[in-house]
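Posting for a labmate who doesn't have an account.
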Amino acid sequence: MMNTLLEFDRAHIWHPYTSTTNPLPVYEVISASGVRLRLAGGLELIDGMSSWWAAIHGYNHPVLNAALMDQASRMSHVMFGGLTHEPAVELCRMLVDMTPAPLTKVFLADSGSVAVEVAMKMAFQFWICQGQPQKNRLLTIRGGYHGDTFGAMSVCDPVTGMHDIFSKVLSRQYFVSRPKCRFGEDFDEADMAPMRDILEEHHQEIAAIILEPVVQGAGGMFFYHPLYVRRVRELCDEFDVLFIADEIATGFGRTGKLFACDHAGVSPDIMCLGKALTGGYMTLAATLTTNRVAQGVCQGRPGVFMHGPTFMGNPLACAVAIASLSLVQHSDFLTNVLRIESNLALGLAPCRNFPYVAHVRTIGAIGVVELHHEVRMAEMQKDFVSHGVWVRPFGRLVYLMPPIIMGDEDLAMLSSAVVKVVSGHHL
């Protein structure tokens, strides 16, 4: 008898970034615990992806389970318009305390893409209410990725990114080349020239600069020098432009600091958070901003911020986020991140010997092997499964973002699998 679940999935369900006419194979997960995914049939895989970087504490965590069940027994959801509740208030209190000063206002949203939309809308409404509606464009660097909704797509790389076919229908933004100075190398002030040139000519039209600080995620897993982020902050102040930090992928310790902005010692005007916020249990995001921006948004007509998701401040999501952030704050979380960094650097180092590997790099709990050629995803994914690990390559990248609880033995197995699979996919 054929697996009817997978048959129905193949016939009717559209998975992320896949074709319905020639879908990629999918694997049925029946349970997950710790750092392992259990497939139908009993095969267990070491998860190298943290479910797209969100499950930082692994799966089936007793503290997160308890928070979710306790909240569900009292209240699963209530509208956030005109009402409030303890989980939302406590979560926002924690976010204000954890994020760089002077971020003091929190807008809760549904997903990372929505958090970016909220940040963009905030920046535009701020300048409209300051009597400068002409400041209605954004500036960013190439190679970035900020989400799949229309505003977020407009600040993803318009040529090498995943959304180039929509270029005719997206809002037009300003782009400059990304910095050449990699993380850990010497900084060259010449890297700032393209950004300064655009600001000198167009700052009257630019509402904000948006960046993924230090680490560009799905746009290419590129790690660049923290001084670039600091210089961008200085340029924003000089030209009266807001600075938006998209920390959806980098927030909550992934890069070895609590936030990637901490590498540069700067604070943005607006910060976007998501992914790891709930430890991968629920969809939730947050956009934080300063008193200056919040007051500026509310000064002019209509006097309120024009956004309000239906599931904003969902109590279940807020409760599990509180539990997740408590684990980040009150455990050896960042120590574990640095331990993972050392393990990944050692384990992936043999890939440097392959002539078809362009670059191997690590930062925090992120390890990347960049090839000279595009990966054959379906074949490579199958090989990873046969080695007992779950890794999702894309483009020319094979990368790891394991749960922060992963032990040394599992990390070694994960890295070893990458070396073996990459060595067999060089044609």
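Reply:
Got it, the structure tokens are right above this. The chain has two domains: 4-61+332-423, 75-329.
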